[in-house]
Every structure is written in C-alpha cells, then in structure tokens.
Amino acid sequence: RYMGPTAEEIVRKRKEFLSPSMFYLYKKPLNIVHGKMQYLFDENGRRYLDGFGGIATVSCGHGHPDVVQAIVNQTNNIQHSTILYLNHAIADFAEALASKMPGDLKVVFFTNSGTEANELAMMIARLYTGCQDVISLRNAYHGNAAGTMGATAMCNWKFNVVQSGVHHTQNPDPYRGAFGSDGEKYAKDVEDLIRFGTSGHVAGFIFEAIQGVGGIVELAPNYLTSVYSTIKKAGGLVIADEVVTTRLFELWICNCTRCVLMRHIVIVPIYQVQCGVARTGSNFWGFQNHGIVPDIVTMAKGIGNGIPLGAVVTTPEIATVLTRRNYFNTFGGNPVSTAAGHAVLKVIEKEKLQENAHVVGSYLKERLCSLKDKHEIIGDVRGRGLLLGVELVTDRKSKTPASAEVLEVMDNMKDLGVLIGKGGFYGNVFRVTPPLCFNKQDADFLVDVMDYSMSKL
Ligand code: PMP
C-alpha cells in the first residue's frame, strides 16, 4: 500500500520547485506509484493499462524482472568507474547491438539520451564531410540541445535557437503533405534545397523512420531511396534517428531468405516490421523499393527500458573522425545502463516480442481502423507494429485538427483505466505506443474504451 505524498502535495512541490514549463497530460494529474509489465498503478492502487509506455521508452514492460535483475546485479558489482578502465558490460552490449546491424554498421558510441545521440551523429557527419549543412524534415523532432533543436522542425519545441546550417525540407506526410503519397515529389525538394540553399555539398540528412512527436507520421513510399541518392551525390551522410522507434529494433532480425536478401534495406522499425510481415508471407509494405543503408543510426528510449541510454552506431571508417580529438562522455555506456540495455535485447529475443509487436500491433491497427468507419472524427489511422497513431479532425475534408476532442477522449479513457499519449503539431493525434508485451485482450480493451469515450463526445 502506497503511503507517500498525495497527488496534491506533489503538484504543490512541482509548482514551487520544478520547471514552470512542465505540463500534465490530464486535467487531474495522475500520481503513478508502481508499474508492472503493461500496467501502471496510481496512489489509490487503481490499475491502468499503459498504452503509452512512458513515451515509447518501456519496451519489455514496466519492472521486467530480467531487466531489473541485470540492473541490480550490475549495481551490486560496480555501478560506475571511469570509462578509461575496462569493464565487460559496455563491450558486451556494444557487440550484441552491432550484431543486430546490417552492413558495416558496427561501431557503437554510447550516450545518455536521444538528444546527445543526435548531437553526436550530426557532429560526426560534419567532421567526416567537412560540410556544415544538415537537412531535416519539417515536423521532425530530434532533441532539445542547440544542434538538435535546430534540426527539430516544429515551432512548439523550439526556443530562440540559432539555425546554423540546418535546412528543413518538405515532410513526405501521406496524410497532410502537399504531394500526398508521392515520395518522389517530396524528394525533389531535397534536391532543390541542396541546389539553392547550400554550396552543393552537405554534411547529411537526418530523419525519423516514423515521426513520433510529430504524430506517428510514416514517410511516403519511395521517398527515402530517392533522397538517399541525392544526399550521396552531395557527399553527405544519411542519419536514421531511431530514438522513438528503437523499441522495435529487434524486428530487424529476420533470417528468412527473403529478408536476408533485403538486409541492405535497413532503416529500422519500418523495415523491421516489414521483415516480420515478409516472414508471414504478406507483402503489403512494399519495402523492396527502399534499398538503403544509413551511414549512422541513433537510438535511445526503448533500448534501456526506462534506464537513460542512447547510442550512435556507424561504420569503422566514419568513426575514425572522432580520433582527431578526445571524445568523452562521463556516463555514456556506464556499466548499469549497458547491462540494462543488454538485458532488454535478450528479453526481446527470449519472449519473442518481435512477433508479438507484429501480431498484436496488426490486430490493434485493424481494430482502430474499424473505429474509423464508426466515428467521423477519426481522420487517419497509421503506424506499424506497436507504434500507432489515430488523428482526429473536426472535418475529414478540411482536416481541421480536433485538438480539444483529443484531450477530452484521453481524459475519459484515463477515467476508464486506459492511458494513451498524444502528439502531432496540432496535438490532435493519439499516440498508441504500449510496451511490447501488450496482448490482444489489452488491444481490445484499449479500443473498446476509445470507442466508448468517442461516442461520449
Ligand atoms: N529523436 C526522436 C525521434 C525523439 O522522439 C526524441 C524524444 N522525444 C529525441 C530524439 C530526443 O530524445 P531525448 O528526449 O532522450 O533527448
């Protein structure tokens, strides 16, 4: 039984002692005191189904015993020492992570967050190419430090940042973008940017395989292949920001003949899920068209199951640029975080969370899609695996964002025991990103509760 401070007491302390910019998801903020797998518990012992997974950071489930044990064991052994001494945890996890990567992507730099990982990736690209210009997508979120805030392209996440050397290209958003699902047309904008906004040479192109903060936006088909060759022609590196999607990264690992042949296709979760799909014999993602391997992959969030852990993976050749000076990160790759990361990898494999994300995710998406027939307010349902978005609009034709309704439905769902997130530039997209241990009954409960809450609007 929870005996700690009440929600009201915590709110009072937050108001007095914490950042005034912090906001709550619900009108009456939740005081979460315990988590177990896909469930969260509040101060009164009330159980909630977690459909948001700590914004996609909890991959295996809250308090997964194997991950907790790995953290406890490592903490008891040695919690931290300078990385200038040897410790096996970082080396073992780097090896395990590299073994999941395609091509020559096998050198790992550890960081503490997604922001740090992207800052490092952009710096590496700039050093390697000798260029400053980086291209990112409008509606992207890449972090909140100087460089990554520059690469982020939504004004609601930006302060007075100096936009040095960052250009934002058209977002290949099939639902709201100017060219619908025509990836080639969006890709042309990257060509134009390079031609008219740079010296003709760039450091790189950074993108999210599925935009998370931006509202679970998948990139239009054929876009990446086209952009890849444009960036290569301009001498740049392609950086896949998988921070929000890494919770699914195990889905890369598919050894069926078809997927082995497609190995060069990377860029994470989308293709990971696609691999899962290909294995079942379906072929509805059309991934054959995206024959690219990024030069750098960044990840965070889900790889630590809640422990601060980020990583940048690149090729040995590109990695050598960091030998020109000293590169150092005090906590990046510390034994406890890397032991946790390694345990997460093992759990995903042991519990077949890859298949689960595919099976339950497809089922959940199907059920969410069927809600669209019932509720006019649903403009779009999208995403892959257990990374799904439901966009609400007051009018399907004009696509006017139904932001207030999103908040109302979320609040109602919370009262009925289901937590989901929101995102998108207008805050009108439900983000459904549960822990990967989510099952079909959970999916049914979530959809039924969403259905009921929408009918109460
Ligand atoms: N990249 C993406 C795609 C993200 O979603 C986020 C966090 N929302 C980040 C980078 C930044 O990660 P962090 O908050 O760990 O710095």
Annotation field: number of helices: 15
Task: Determine the structural class based on helices, strands and strand pairing.
Answer: alpha/beta
Mean pLDDT: 89
Number of DSSP strand runs: 18
InterPro entries: Aminotrans_3, PyrdxlP-dep_Trfase, PyrdxlP-dep_Trfase_major, PyrdxlP-dep_Trfase_small
Organism: Helianthus annuus (Common sunflower)
GO molecular function: (R)-3-amino-2-methylpropionate-pyruvate transaminase activity; pyridoxal phosphate binding
Keywords: Aminotransferase, Pyridoxal phosphate, Transferase
Question: Any overview of this molecule?
Answer:
- With 457 residues, this protein is of the alpha/beta class.
- It has two domains: 7-60 and 353-455, Aspartate Aminotransferase, domain 1 (Alpha-Beta Complex); 67-350, Aspartate Aminotransferase, domain 2 (3-Layer(aba) Sandwich).
- The chain contains 15 helices and 18 strands.
- It has a seven-stranded mixed β-sheet, with helices on both faces. Strands 13, 14, 15, 17 and 18 form a five-stranded antiparallel β-sheet that branches.
- A hairpin with a 5-residue loop joins strand 8 (210-211) and strand 9.
- 4'-deoxy-4'-aminopyridoxal-5'-phosphate is lined by residues 113-115, 118, 141-143, 208, 212-213, 241, 243-244, 300.
Task: Detail the topology: elements first, then pairings.
Layout: H1 7-17, E1 32-36, E2 39-42, E3 47-50, H2 53-56, H3 65-77, H4 88-99, E4 107-111, H5 114-129, E5 134-137, H6 146-151, E6 166-169, H7 183-197, E7 204-208, E8 210-211, E9 217-218, H8 223-233, E10 237-241, H9 257-261, H10 268-279, E11 296-299, E12 310-314, H11 316-319, H12 335-350, H13 353-374, E13 378-384, E14 387-395, E15 400-401, H14 403-415, E16 418-419, E17 421-423, E18 429-432, H15 440-455
Parallel strand pairs: 3-16, 5-6, 5-7, 7-10, 10-11
Antiparallel strand pairs: 1-2, 2-3, 4-12, 8-9, 11-12, 13-14, 14-15, 14-18, 17-18
Bound molecules: 4'-deoxy-4'-aminopyridoxal-5'-phosphate.
4'-deoxy-4'-aminopyridoxal-5'-phosphate (PMP) is lined by residues 113-115, 118, 141-143, 208, 212-213, 241, 243-244, 300.
